[in-house]
């Protein structure tokens, strides 16, 4: 079968072996897969990703110098169930999503970061059948593919402990920052103040529920918060992941603020702890999501509680994945590009698609 393969820091489309379902597996045909910021990082900095996995005991380390197929924000159609799948909730023909880990014997394989099992930048892949969730309510594949990244945003909001009566400041409106804005809006948090350098992403933040958006070059986010509120307890979401930003947030945030770090900084960084100490800043980090949050995200998208349409800005086939990676370097161009195997190679802009029912 065909796949977009990460090979020596580049993306090439080539043939790979057909996956064969083992015990507990489902063979699926990929219908859509989002390109994640971690995929962009991994293509260029795979060795660092491996170092982090080993240092944190996450396991699943792979050889970045050997071929691997990325893609972990997927929706797929079940083609075949392997042995030892009696009692699973899915059947051939079902459209499914799942947390991107494959149980392979005694190993837990992170899909998209493995030399042995392909991720979703491929025509077909293997999933853990028991972890597959059927896509409900006639939800289309494109929106269903947003389950994984939106679950990351939900987890960040949950970790922060924000409640109604608090204000929120979101620093950075990339896909994760925008997901945080959407969940905050769904929970009735106000005001939500968001900042980003990109005009397009500021506009999307408004569409997703932000009450005030600013270009930090014109007005710092905390000055905007003081202008429109300045009284409520403030929860800050750092979703940039660039060295120096966290220190700037700690320096400018009000005393007693809660700061939730969702941005993935790949470089060593420096903060001034004394400033955080004097201000009694509550600093929290968030990563991923749990199975309940993943399932709740799928339900919320399918029931129309949260609208992911604004995220969907482009689509490519396997032959266009490399071009899509380049396109995502421009924040004014795209937010989320979906890989849809079998479609034309060029990046096709996505307009309105059928709403979830």
């Amino acid at each position: 079968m065909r796949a977009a393969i990460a090979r020596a820091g580049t993306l090439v489309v080539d043939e790979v072996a057909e996956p064969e379902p083992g015990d507990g597996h489902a063979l699926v045909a990929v219908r859509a897969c989002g390109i994640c910021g971690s995929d962009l990082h991994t293509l260029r900095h795979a060795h660092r990703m491996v170092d982090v996995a080993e240092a944190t005991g996450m396991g699943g380390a792979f050889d970045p110098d050997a071929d691997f197929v990325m893609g972990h924000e997927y929706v797929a159609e079940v083609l075949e169930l392997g042995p030892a799948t009696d009692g699973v909730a899915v059947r051939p023909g079902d459209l499914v999503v799942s947390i991107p880990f494959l149980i392979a014997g005694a190993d837990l394989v992170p899909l998209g970061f493995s030399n042995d099992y392909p991720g979703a930048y491929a025509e077909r892949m293997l999933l853990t059948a028991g972890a597959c969730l059927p896509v409900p309510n006639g939800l289309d594949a494109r929106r269903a593919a947003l389950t994984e990244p939106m679950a990351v945003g939900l987890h960040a909001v949950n970790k922060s402990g924000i409640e109604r009566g608090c204000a929120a400041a979101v620093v950075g409106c990339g896909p994760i920052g925008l997901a945080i804005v959407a969940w905050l809006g769904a929970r009735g948090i106000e005001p939500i103040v968001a900042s980003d350098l990109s005009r397009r992403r500021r506009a999307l933040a408004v569409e997703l529920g932000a009450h005030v958006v600013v270009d930090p070059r014109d007005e710092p986010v905390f000055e905007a918060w003081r202008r429109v509120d300045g009284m409520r307890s403030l929860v800050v979401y750092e979703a940039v992941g660039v060295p120096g930003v966290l220190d700037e947030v700690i320096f400018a945030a009000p005393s007693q603020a809660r700061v939730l770090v969702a941005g993935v900084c790949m470089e060593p960084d420096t903060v001034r702890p004394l400033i955080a100490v004097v201000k009694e800043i509550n600093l929290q980090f968030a990563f991923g999501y749990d199975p309940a949050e993943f399932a709740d995200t799928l339900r919320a998208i399918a029931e129309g509680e949260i609208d992911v349409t604004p995220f969907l800005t482009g689509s490519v086939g396997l032959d266009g994945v490399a071009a899509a990676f380049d396109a995502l370097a421009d924040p004014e161009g795209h937010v989320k590009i979906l890989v849809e195997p079998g479609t034309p190679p060029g990046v096709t802009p996505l307009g309105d698609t059928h709403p979830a029912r």
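Residues 183 and 242 are 23 Å apart (CA to CA). The two ends are 34 Å apart (CA to CA).
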